[in-house]
Design a protein that fits this description.
- With about 675 residues, the chain is mainly α.
- It folds into two domains: about 210 residues, Four Helix Bundle (Hemerythrin (Met), subunit A); about 450 residues, Helix Hairpins, CATH 1.10.287.
- Helix content is about 80%, strand content about 0%.
- The chain contains 13 helices and no strands.
- About 25% of the residues are buried.
Length: about 675
Amino acid sequence: MFSNLKVRTGLLLVLSFMSILALGVTVLGWYSVKGGSADIKNLERVSLHQLQDVRKAYVGVLRAVIRIDSSINAISAETARTEAQAATTLLADARKSFASYQGSPKLTENARQVETALARDFAAYAASVENMGQAAAANDQARYLQIKTQDATQASAALIRSLDAFETYANGRSDSFVTASEQRARMMDIVLVALAVLIVLSIVGSYMFLNRQLLRPLQRAGNLFDRIAAGDLTQRVEARSNNEIGQLFAALRRMQESLTRTVTAVRTGVDEINVGAREISAGNTDLSSRTEQQAASLEETAASMEQLAGTVRQNADNARQANQLAASSMEVAQRGGSAVSEVVGTMQEISASSKKISEIVSVIDGIAFQTNILALNAAVEAARAGEQGKGFAVVAGEVRSLAQRSAQAAKEIKGLIEDSVSKVGAGSQQVERAGATMQEIVQSVKRVTDIMGEISAASQEQSTGIEQVNRAVTQMDEVTQQNAALVEEAAAAAGSLQEQAVKLAEAVAVFRVQGGGEVIDVRSRQIGASRQAPRVGVSNERPPEHKPAAVAAPAPAPAEPEQPPAQPPRKRPVALPSATAAPAAARPAAVRPATTGHSASAGAKPAAQPLTPRAGRSKPAAGAAASHAATPAASTERPAARREAPPAAEPMLRPSATRRHQPAEDDWESF
């Protein structure tokens, strides 16, 4: 009935039922307390307040009667008046107390009847006492005695009867209140016992419900988890409901199925790992032999690179000396040009001075002409003066003679100066042409010097590139030696991998799955597979070796640990990009066939290239040495290659730091 009930819904129902029971107990307790409080208030009102007010009123009237008797029997009038006033006050207080009783609520009809009779009798007795007081105040003893013995006595007897009836009513009400409280208490005891029984039954029912819906399924799930933790995957997991517990068992069943599939896949993969590890070991053995051949090839390449480096270094020294001689010639030409420039400046200054002298001579000629005119005017004036001007005429004649000679000398000097200016101008033009020629000589020598500097720089760069290639080949030799060590480590790792596969099989063997619970016998399968599995990397496609003795080592070049195809090909710091780029570009294509049969690719390359000692260096295994093995026609491209050589040489200088673990990854990938 409740098998598909949600756990949340069941818990809410249990909590709701418990809350309803708690609320019922609370309401009943509140009702009982409220009823008891009401009974206590009624009892207090009837038994205490009303009875106390009535008694206080009756006692007050009796005290007023005593005061009236004292006043009537007083010796002095002052005492009588005082006692009469006290009696009046006491009577007024008694009426107030009775009025307080009348003001209290009456809950029953009997209470109202008792109140009516008591009020009538109290009013009659209070009126009789008041009349007694008036008679006493008038000192009318006869009337006083008459009222006291007749009216007051009868009213007092009636009031006493009414008081007795009221006390009887008050005691009855108190008894009824007590009886009702006792009955209510007994009823509450019965209800509380019933509620306690109901609560106990509810707790037992809730426990049974939760045990059936929650505890036992969780215990069963815990047992299943323990069995799965122990490796037993054969237990049947059933989801018997659709609630949260059912969803838990469904998830547990999915987990068991997934774990069963995983264990089965691991068992299957263990055998494959063993076969793969054995193939890796065989491939590493073959790789080790080819790595040794590559090391021999790199040693020969390194020797050739040493010779080439010596030749290029000598060429660089010669180019450097020629550059120095060209620089010296350029300095001499520059000094000659500077001297010619100074001569040109001097000639220009002489020309300017000659022009100034010509101007000064022109000024002197003008002064002589004006002096001549003045002498002529002076002679004319002397002739007009007659005898008195003869001496002045003689002086004027001499001055004119001197002016004419000065003018003649100025003309001659002017002619000489003009001839000098013309000759200086011609010489200045010749010096300027000589300066221009010397400047052209300086520019030509400078261009020659620049060209020689470029040749020297190119030779230096070529020498540096050859040295870098030499270092790269040396480093490749070191890396090859390291690869040989890594191959041995890989073989040891393959053996360790086989051991780990055996341990993994033993670890997975603890799981029992449906379908027989088979445990893989790794060792027996390993022995059987070792008799049938082909040797990886050893192929019948290897052609017979026909390499020259000088280049016997470059044959196993494809076995060199290369960068994965995803990495960009390395740039070599050499002078011939065409000789190195082609092998580098062809390297990814040469690596891919090696993934299925690297020994076949290693044997195919010697057959494809019958190598000479120089041509053998253009292979990918010795691609760094291909720059100095190119044809003379390709050597014209060296200046263009030098500008790219220095940045490309950076990766080659760090093989020991960056390729320490790379060969192992390449070898693993190739297998």
